[in-house]
Amino acid sequence: MKVQLFNFEPQHLTLSNLVKIGNIQLPEFPLLLAPMEDVSDPPFRAVCKDNGAHLMYTEFISSEGLIRDAIKSKKKLDIFDYEKPVGIQIFGGDEESLSLAAKIVDATNPDLLDINFGCPVKKVACRGAGAGVLKDVPLMVRLTDAVVKSTSLPVTVKTRLGWDENTKNIEEVAERLQDVGIQALAIHGRTRVQMYKGSAAWELIAKVKENPRITIPIFGNGDIDSPQKALEYKNRYGVDGIMIGRAAIGYPWIFNEISHYVKTGEILPAPSVEERVAVCKKHLIKSFEWKGPIVGINEMRRHYTNYLKGMPNIREYRTKLVTLKGVEEIIEVLDEIVSEYSGYEFEKTPIELINYHEKCAV
Ligand SMILES: Cc1cc2nc3c(=O)[nH]c(=O)nc-3n(C[C@H](O)[C@H](O)[C@H](O)COP(=O)(O)O)c2cc1C
């Protein structure tokens, strides 16, 4: 069943509105998968790509870790042809480390290199990296300049509105970073001090976009959780595209749902059991292949609840999924779920955005 909304104005998509970052050609109003530590790894990116993400980013990677050759940091550099275009995100507070890290990233040949100036957690922001750099714009400019000069890739930045309520400097930051050569800017509509509290405010993002000096694409980020909200924010704030994080966790269909709604005004039906299980299986198999049998299966456990959300009396199956150790056995349980629930009509319930204020790894 497709629900037609009455107040929908069709969007006129034209070639002249395509969005470009360096040589990367994106469609009009691209939908970006946000970088998310412990989430936006290759298995998750694979299912987001299948479901309509136009540009994706890796989890953030420590520049110091890359230089030290830390296994965890190196592993995060893995990108695959089928996920292109894809950007690698790095963070750090030191020009030399960021410059060396940029050279390492360059050699792995992603489509772009993103600098994280938005991470709010203490261990990053209070050590002069991530959102901590928002307190010192000249340093931010030097760090960005060092990266731009160390790579042949287009450099982009992801940041927040400012450090706190009284120092929202994103308008200045956008101009200064564009001047040193960044080719797109993604802005999360919160300050560092807000972490994930309250609602993301997009008014300042719109101001950056409206600034006639700004010519690079501006992507809005924060709290997009439905096709209706995405279109409303597109029209109200005029951004070039939207970056989506939490809403995609367990629900990668959000990308296609938004694109379809923007083009047609139709809300697609909720994915069927068959679709949910097929995506879950792909995520599992990719995890197994990329992380190995033990870590791959363990880390996949946190995803089942999300994929199976809304199914009645699923507890017993879920318990099996999170205790079984063999990939074949897990796939058998997933197949049983399909037989048992085939034809089940999911309700279109709002996506719940978890407040990562306390829990979030970044
Ligand atoms: C689990 C998690 C991990 C995150 N890791 C990163 C990261 O590595 N780099 C980054 O720039 N932002 C990170 N973020 C912030 C997101 O990219 C995004 O800015 C934020 O979640 C707001 O968007 P949303 O409301 O669509 O989720 C993370 C967010 C979450 C929830």
Query: How many angstroms does the end-to-end distance come to?
Result: 39 Å
Bound compounds, each kind once, are:
flavin mononucleotide
User: What portion of the residues fall into strands of 2 or more residues?
Assistant: 5-15%
Strand order of the largest sheet: 4-5-6-7-8-9-10-11
The radius of gyration is 20 Å
Question: Rough shape?
Answer: globular
Extract low-pLDDT stretches.
1-6, 358-362
Largest sheet: 8 strands, parallel, barrel
By secondary-structure content and strand pairing, the structural class works out as: alpha/beta
The overall average pLDDT, rounded, is 93
Order of helices and strands: EEEEHEHHEHEHHEHEHEHEHEHHHHH
- Compute the number of strand runs: 12
Count of runs of 4 or more consecutive helical residues: 15
Binned, the helix content reads: 40-55%
